Amino acid sequence: MAQSVYLASKPHYEILDGLRGVAALMVIVFHLFEAHAGGNHLVQIINHGYLAVDFFFMLSGFVIGYAYDDRWDRMSIGAFFKRRLIRLHPMVIMGSLVGGALFYFQAAPCFPQIADTPVVELIAIMLLGCTLLPLPLKWDVRGWTEMHPLNGPAWSLYYEYIANILYALVVRRFSKMLLWIFVVLAACATTYHLLTAPMGDMVGGWALNLEQQKNGFIRLLYPFFGGLLLYRMGWIMPRMRHAFLYSSLLIVVVLSLPRFGGEEHFWVNGLYEAFCIIFIFPLIVSIGAGGRLTGRYSSRVCKFLGDISYPIYITHYPIVYVYTAWVSRNNASMADGAPYMVLVFAAAVALAYACLRLYDLPLRNWLTARFLKRKAA
User: Fold this and answer.
1) What's the predicted TM-score (pTM) here?
2) Within its chain, how far is the Cα of 131 from the centroid?
């Protein structure tokens, strides 16, 4: 029984850790440029940065398969959920607290509801945000219809939790054939959605309404369980020289390319995104999983990027909200904002590292000792 509660961690795929960090940094850049695009992805720089979320889902599916597929004979479902909560939830709480702390600094024409939000309501929303429960539209205190209005990116953690529940309760029992069928159907749904979407893109999933929830589930199912299938099939590229460099460049290019098709042919952009999600992202994960790092420097870079990737992703957006508000108040151009964009980028990295070292790691170590190791002993 003790062994079913506490299990030692397996070695990490170092390059996959590094790739997660590269994608997280690209998300910051995407959101900073988005502040100057006015929500128009036809002119957005780092145009497909939102696809980093779909890449994260695929990485998660692969890593979940690697970490847990062979442990179910000695691990309970409860122990699995404890491990996942200990890994993910401390930074969910921190993201909500950071969002609450910076909320009133974000008042601007682009966020007209902020100035009229009472402190009591803000505190209630912040505490609810710590639970990751999705909030209905009547609690939208920003005006962007986000179900986590203090920290928008928390929506993807909401779906990450759903994926973990589906894996633990159902999908872990799937045979390879059944998982194949499930993933192919999910790929078909992804393709159909992208070819018929009004704007021909995968943007969405952050609001608690039927259309956005459907979009979020479509975004989740193929990448996450496609990553799981990739692991189970053992489709890993043979060892490649400079695998981290090539796979990093590939993810940067995929996320940076301009929009395809223009206003006349949205389906062209949808076809590009479907191709990236269904084929290019598995290729990148395969290259990263099969590659090996040589040299202490590259290992340190990947470890650092991997360590800060999740803290960056879950805490950067409240700082970007402040920058977006500044742009809105001052009608600032990208040239005007360039030095502040660099400052925001550096601040996001510094905040993430501070949260990691001073909060996330100590708290996870304590929770592991309290709820996993102690029971094992």
Assistant:
1) 0.95
2) 17
Give kind and range of the element (H or E) at residue 187: helix 176-196
Q: Specify the pLDDT at position 10.
A: 74
Residue type, 96: S
Q: 109-118 pLDDT, tens per residue?
A: 999 999 999 9
14 close to 248: Cβ distance less than 8 angstroms: no
For residue 1, pLDDT over 70 is answered with no
**Pairwise CA distance, residues 237 & 251, whole Å:** 16
Q: What is the number of other CB atoms lying within 10 angstroms of the CB of residue 56? A: 25
Task: Supply the angle between the helices 52-68 and 154-169 in degrees, to the nearest 10.
Answer: 30
The whole-angstrom separation of Cα 366 and Cα 377 is: 15
* Nearest one of 42, 69, 41, 27 to 229, comparing CA atoms: 69
CB atoms within 10 A of CB 347: 16
3 state DSSP class of 322: helix
Question: Residue 98: which residues within 8 A CB-CB, separation 6 or more?
Answer: 151, 315, 318, 351
